[in-house]
Task: inverse folding
DNA sequence: CCGCCCGCATGACACCTGTCACGAATTCTT
DNA sequence: AAGAATTCGTGACAGGTGTCATGCGGGCGG
């Protein structure tokens, strides 16, 4: 019998926190997982900051975390959740199978990585395996991550390449990052070379696809 | 009592088809909507072609349709479903609140347009209202669509701008679309002017954000 | 203390981009 | 049938891009 008011009622259920910036997806995932008898959704978060706050408050067994969220992104939120809640394991649930994302997720301490192409039936199983201490990662994605996951760009190169991808000129980027236009062009040129593109627009697209920016 | 084998059992339930290229999202939406006593998910589709085929086979009351799907996109699929199945209403359920998407969706015959930021509780209600013959559109998005939804770009301009957004040079684009490099530059210049950007990269980004490409 | 490395900056050069004017061919409207 | 509009193409010019060499200052390691 469950003791009323117990901080963590020893019901045997796996307690879940779901973090996704899209309310519909968040709610739908909650509905899906609640159908499983042994899974219990105890909280929701709409962005990275909320995810950290709610994880600290609720101490869920598993936190399902999207990557691209406004403000604090899911990778940084993962790092903070893992650091603050020893008993909480993080399962990344993301739209894009980007090698860079997987690598960063594992470096941040995530226990699993699932893309939204995965059949719905497999999500509950992934949650259970993560809770049991297993790693859950698509093998093909893991292999891609080994070769492509490592980000070849420096912090500054990533910074200027993001702006270039939005169409800003070198002088405009220079104003944003407080460097000279010539330095920005040198950084862009280096980034273009590392990514193997023919210009800054293509470089930004490739880096984004790989999860490097 | 339901007659066994009846093509459309007269149960009073609203029969749904869910089209989304992400299996997890598709399944989760199905789980969410199945919780409602009067809604019945009768089929799923992972792309636009499947959506059309399944709609013709199942004759659902409402089809939930994502926009960005591989192959036939959700807007074109909507057009075909509406043309082929008189009794099926289409509710667009998409990630991006792009004015151009809304306009194209309504032009394609969609009865509703919901973004995935919407609270999960409102989805079932939106389905019921669409089924009842109502239009379901966020008023703010409708207003934005009036001013920004109309695509100012010609067919050719859209075509070359997409390539430019991926970083292709004018000669490379010319090879893809079978025009001269000079013509491509003229088309890009016209598109840049219409969109109000300072270069092709920014123009591609703006057009994509507005749902024009 | 010295040498090396890294980040930032400048300048030069070749090439690409964006704009504009003009013309030819095709299509559409009157 | 004729005129207008649209699409495509060419050429010229100014500005932006990408590459490369070089130099300076600060930090780090020996």
Result:
């Amino acid at each position: 019998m469950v003791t009323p008011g117990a901080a963590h009622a020893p019901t045997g259920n796996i307690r879940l926190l779901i973090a996704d910036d899209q309310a519909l997806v968040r709610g739908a995932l909650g509905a899906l997982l609640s159908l499983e008898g042994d899974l219990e959704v105890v909280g929701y978060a709409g962005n990275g900051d909320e995810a950290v706050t709610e994880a600290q408050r609720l101490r869920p067994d598993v936190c399902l975390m999207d990557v691209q969220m406004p403000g604090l992104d899911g990778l940084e939120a993962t790092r903070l959740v893992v650091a603050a809640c020893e008993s909480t394991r993080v399962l990344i649930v993301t739209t894009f199978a980007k090698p860079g994302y997987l690598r960063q997720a594992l470096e941040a301490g995530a226990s699993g990585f699932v893309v939204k192409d995965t059949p719905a039936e497999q999500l509950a199983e992934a949650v259970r395996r993560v809770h049991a201490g297993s790693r859950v990662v698509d093998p093909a994605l893991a292999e891609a991550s080994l070769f492509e996951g490592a980000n070849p760009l420096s912090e500054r190169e990533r910074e200027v390449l993001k702006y270039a991808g939005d169409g800003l000129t070198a002088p405009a980027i220079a104003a944003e990052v407080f460097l000279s236009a010539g330095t920005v062009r040198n950084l862009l040129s280096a980034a273009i070379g590392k990514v193997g593109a023919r210009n800054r627009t293509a470089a930004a697209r490739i880096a984004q696809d790989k999860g490097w920016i």
Summary: Residues 148 and 202 of chain B are 17 Å apart (CA to CA). Residues 154, 156, 179-180, 182-183, 186-187, 199 of chain B lie near DNA strand D (CB under 10 Å from a C1').
